[in-house]
Amino acid sequence: xxxxxxxxxxxxxxxxxxxxxxxxxxxxxxxxxxxxxxxxxxxxxxxxxxxxxxxxxxxxxxxxxxxxxxxxxxxxxxxxxxxxxxxxxxxxxxxxxxxxxxxxxxxxxxxxxxxxxxxxxxxxxxxxxxxxxxxxxxxxxxxxxxxxxxxxxxxxxxxxxxxxxxxxxxxxxxxxxxxxxxxxxxxxxxxxxxxx
Length: 196
Hints:
With 196 residues, the chain is of the alpha/beta class. It contains seven helices and nine strands, in the order E-H-E-E-E-H-E-E-H-E-H-E-H-H-E-H. The chain has a single domain (3-189), classed as P-loop containing nucleotide triphosphate hydrolases (Rossmann fold), CATH 3.40.50. The strands form two sheets. The chain has a five-stranded parallel β-sheet with strand order 2-7-1-8-9.
């Protein structure tokens, strides 16, 4: 596949808006999409596998990759917690003849979009409201009062960037949001990838 055909799908959203669920739905349906595995310095959660869920690395290893300009985007998302997309990961997916699907935070998504303006489709998954997002995060049962507040405040800030993206999809009903995301991707991809 030549360089001009190398497309990238970027899905971004505040935490709890449903982007990972929508991403999993699309990956399960379309074999020509491939999940771009992010690098992260946090500890693996129960059941997470290195090289499948994330490329887990130490802060020192991550900073070494930054020095070598190995990332197409990276952020310190929370104090001491780095996340990023390795250039080699995108190249690996392109070499398989597939389209990388990035499930990344808002700032990272803006960086990727700026680097690949013609090749990328960026989709912002918006919660119906900040109150609904708070309810979803609370129902997970994984947040303390402090981390919940931090996530809700960060979400409000991230929503302010929604107009930087190609499409905004409001996830009020998951099934509808999945269908809208799917339609946007199929319109963007057209017949360009040789769908294996």
